[in-house]
Design brief:
about 240 residues; Arc Repressor Mutant, subunit A; 2 domains; six-stranded antiparallel beta sheet; 9 helices
Length: about 240
């Protein structure tokens, strides 16, 4: 395990304006579709900031901590989350200090709202502050409600590489990490991203300066290539496997 030197050499040494710009750059790496909220945690895994949207999405009163948050996870998913936390720690410890900031972690689970109903959460996290020895002192977390795309599936863990780093998708507990490759072309990814933003084929054709027929053809091909029966299923796979 790395020992912290206490010398923070990244984002925290910048001005507030620079820090805010860096934060927005990080958020751009985290795709949001559906209701979501974000929060930050420190090196002691304590919540250092919680956006007010968490109250709107979950219904819980503001001021809840990590212990309360963990108790809201579905009992059948808690074992997976505990295992994921260990795998995340092990993965980050194998990275060089420079690469720690270049990986987003992603997993899904069920979370209980204040009214007792469970929603399907896609959790994404990425470091925003780190010491010169690789210790993460601030972590940006974003939780998106994807219940309308898929009520629930078995929780899976992925490590998403940024800035041309390889990605490792749906990590198995027993297998070694193998870099994953996207099955979609760059054009298809661009179209898919616009689809996820709610654009129709006609609107996409105008944005990309292509014919509607071409866009429709790409959409059909994506369904076939990904073995998706519907557009919703395609989007759900794209979120989980980070195709965009």
């Amino acid at each position: 395990m790395r020992k912290s030197s206490g010398n923070i050499t990244s984002l925290s040494n910048k001005t507030n304006i620079q820090l805010e710009l860096e934060l927005y750059k990080k958020i751009l790496h985290i795709f949001q579709i559906g209701e979501y909220y974000h929060y930050t945690t420190n090196q002691n895994n304590e919540i250092s900031f919680m956006h007010p949207d968490a109250v709107k999405v979950l219904g819980h009163q503001p001021g809840f901590n990590q212990e309360f948050f963990f108790k809201c996870i579905h009992p059948q998913d808690t074992e997976h989350i505990i295992r994921f936390k260990d795998q995340i720690t092990n993965f980050r410890q194998q990275l060089s200090v420079k690469k720690v900031l270049k990986y987003k972690v992603q997993y899904n689970f069920r979370l209980k709202k204040a009214n007792g109903a469970y929603i399907h959460i896609l959790h994404q996290e990425i470091p925003i502050e780190i010491t010169d020895d690789g210790t993460i002192t601030q972590l940006l977390n974003l939780d998106t409600d994807i219940s309308y795309l898929e009520p629930h599936t078995m929780p899976t863990l992925s490590f998403i590489g940024l800035e041309n780093q390889p990605s490792f998708l749906e990590i198995s507990q027993d297998k070694s990490l193998e870099a994953s490759k996207s099955i979609l072309s760059n054009v298809e990814k661009e179209i898919l991203k616009l689809m996820m933003q709610g654009n129709s084929s006609l609107e996409i054709s105008k944005i990309l300066y292509r014919s509607k027929f071409t866009i429709d053809t790409h959409r059909k091909n994506m369904l076939i290539k990904t073995q998706s029966a519907t557009t919703a299923a395609l989007i759900n796979k794209a979120l989980k496997e980070n195709w965009i």
